[in-house]
Design goal:
This protein is α+β, with helices and mostly antiparallel strands. It is built from 19 helices and 26 strands. The strands form six sheets. Strands 4, 7, 9, 10, 13, 14, 16, 18 and 20 form a nine-stranded antiparallel beta sheet that branches. Strands 24-23-22-25-26 form a five-stranded parallel beta sheet, with helices on both faces. The radius of gyration is 28 Å and the shape is elongated. The two termini are 39 Å apart.
Length: 582
């Protein structure tokens, strides 16, 4: 197998399994041999061999054959071949890209991206497959028609653990029985040939930033094993999803999200039916920021069972737990009639008890909610800022701006951007940061960055009072609020009001904050609070949403360029605790 690395070089795979036993399916004797090999007794025998000490004698020849660099792994000696399959890498050999806007590879492997046609079919390695056969569901086939499939081939030399590509929630895994079916490219027949027998599991994943995905995990072998880390639960980007105990494996990710810009080298290679070598955790695509929702869906208050929807109803999952022999399509989808029964019963009961009150409340609530929500979502703070900056460019003298900064990395793009229009004083007021040595580290990093940045107009630094007790007083009673909830809004107000006071006292023309550059911060709330603080103290708030125009991505580039310290939590003790819990 030939593929390209990320530098565009051709690489010849060390994989020795060149001949696939497809021919065995074509003869009665071959099919009988496969049946015996895949029988319960045959698989148990093979598993016992892999678990035995005898199997470890085959590890070194396997390593030599596939040229596996064992220096990257924690252990040098393995008790059995199964133990060898479970090997883990040393810390630092795989880094998960923590930019929330980037889609990362779930594994080491060779990636190809294919388009799914209107019939739910796609081409990979000159073979035509269907979504329905891979997932065991015709309904998934129909829903994914017109979308994309990301195919990761994991060879024997690749790391066999895999992770989640984003924060989100996964469903329980559903085992798909039956062979993989395919037909050669150019074969117009409606039927498929048996391509191979394998072990496959399907899971639904609701990603925070990239929407719904259907993930198929396949061993690509008769006797392979999939070890799933956990079933239905909320997960974090980079968290382990599972590992394979077989030489070859595949991960297929089906999605219908047109707002992802996949890396150009991967697209170019895929267009020529060539796979690209990728590593677990590295970027393979970026979501366009204009398509990113303002409110992070991790902050909603839905229960852990939010994936018990049209994909994996609870009743169907209970059937799989009891090992009832039903098809994957019946497990993954529930008839629409049954899904509609429950919501219809509840309103009927309530309207019978209070027939007079309900009709009066409903028409009043709907017109009130819709007009308030729609105009808010239409506010484009970047356009407002563009118009403001266009007027400022015509002035003979640059206005003075007090810029509240949360940290050096977030300020990097904002300072690069706004220093062409303003004389800026960076106001570092963040009593929420804990512990104190973390606070002091961030202060020092902020001052260092300002001293290194070349700017059109001067930039000065002002440190506010570090008074964590003031933060704890406004957070009292809000300790259990989720990240991005009321406690965060109170923290916005604390820092913006202090900024407004100083801006008014020292007669700045404007004040604003760097906070809106983060995809996890609510720009609408920040601008609303900033405007109110500005009105209270008589100073103009500069409306903004710095994550636009690829501001967040630019801040990451600048952080790398200036070697800035980038913290992995917002700053307060509550966000730190949440990080440790996950």
């Amino acid at each position: 197998m030939r593929y390209r690395d990320r530098d565009g070089n051709w690489v010849e795979s060390r994989e020795r399994y060149k001949k696939h036993p497809v021919g065995l399916y074509k003869s009665p004797a071959g099919r009988k041999l496969i049946e015996l090999y895949r029988s319960a007794a045959g698989l148990r025998l093979y598993e016992r061999f892999l678990d035995s000490q005898v199997s470890r004698n085959f590890i070194q020849p396997f390593v030599n054959t596939h040229d596996i660099d064992m220096s990257m792994y924690e252990k040098d000696v393995y008790a059995s071949f199964t133990d060898f399959y479970r090997r883990r890498m040393k810390t630092g050999y795989r880094r998960i890209d923590d930019n929330p806007l980037t889609l990362v590879s779930p594994c080491d492997g060779k990636l190809g991206i294919a388009s799914i046609d209107e019939n739910g079919e796609f081409c990979y390695r000159k073979q035509i497959y269907s979504v329905g056969n891979q997932t065991g569901s015709q309904k998934i086939n129909d829903r994914m028609a017109g979308g994309k499939v990301l195919i990761f081939h994991i060879s024997p030399e690749d790391y066999h653990h895999y992770c989640y590509v984003d924060d989100g929630e996964k469903s329980k895994n559903v085992v798909v029985n039956g062979p993989q079916l395919a037909r050669p490219l150019g074969d117009s027949r409606s039927g498929y040939n048996i391509y191979k027998q394998d072990c496959r599991e399907v899971t639904m994943f609701r990603s925070v930033h990239f929407g719904k995905m259907v993930i198929v995990i396949s061993t690509g072998a008769y006797n392979g094993k999939i070890i799933t880390a956990h079933q239905q639960r909320k997960v974090k980007k980079g968290e382990e999803m599972g590992h394979f105990e077989s030489g070859n494996a595949y991960i297929m990710i089906f999605m219908k999200n047109d707002s992802i810009d996949f890396d150009q080298d991967i697209l170019d290679n895929s267009s020529h039916k060539v796979s690209t070598s990728v590593l677990m955790g590295e970027q393979i695509g970026v979501i366009r920021e204009e398509d990113l929702e303002e409110n992070d869906s991790t902050n909603d208050s839905k229960s852990d069972s939010m994936l018990v929807n049209e994909f994996l109803p609870r009743e169907a999952l209970e059937q799989t737990e009891k090992s009832i022999n039903v098809s994957a399509e019946e497990i993954i989808y529930k008839p629409e009639e049954k899904l509609e029964e429950k919501p219809e019963e509840k309103p009927e009961e309530k309207t019978e008890e209070k027939p007079e009150e309900k009709p009066e409340e409903k028409p009043e609530e709907k017109p009130e909610e819709k007009p308030t929500e729609k105009p808010k979502n239409k506010i484009n703070y970047q356009k407002i800022l563009d118009k403001k900056l266009a007027r400022i460019e015509t002035l003979a003298k640059p206005p003075r701006l007090l810029l509240h900064s949360c940290c050096a990395p977030c300020s990097s793009y904002v300072l690069e951007y706004l220093s062409d229009y303003f004389e800026i004083t960076v106001f570092y007021y963040n009593p929420n940061i804990s512990p104190q040595d973390e606070y002091e580290k961030r202060v020092k990093e902020q001052e260092t960055f300002i001293s290194k940045l070349n700017s059109k107009y001067p930039i000065t630094f002002r440190e506010g009072k570090y008074d964590p007790e003031r933060f704890y007083s406004i957070a009292k009673g809000l300790e259990n609020e989720p990240e991005g909830g009321l406690r965060c809004f109170a923290c916005y107000a604390l820092r913006l009001e202090e900024s407004a006071k100083l801006a008014a006292k020292e007669k700045f023309d404007y004040f604003t904050t760097t906070l809106s550059i983060s995809p996890l911060k609510n720009a609408e709330k920040l601008n609303t609070i900033g405007e109110k603080c500005g009105e209270k103290y008589g100073v103009a708030y500069l409306q903004s949403d710095f994550k636009k125009k690829n501001g967040y991505l630019r801040s990451i580039e600048l952080s790398k360029e200036y070697n800035l310290y980038r913290q992995n939590y917002c700053g307060c003790i509550f966000s730190q605790e949440r990080l440790s819990e996950n």
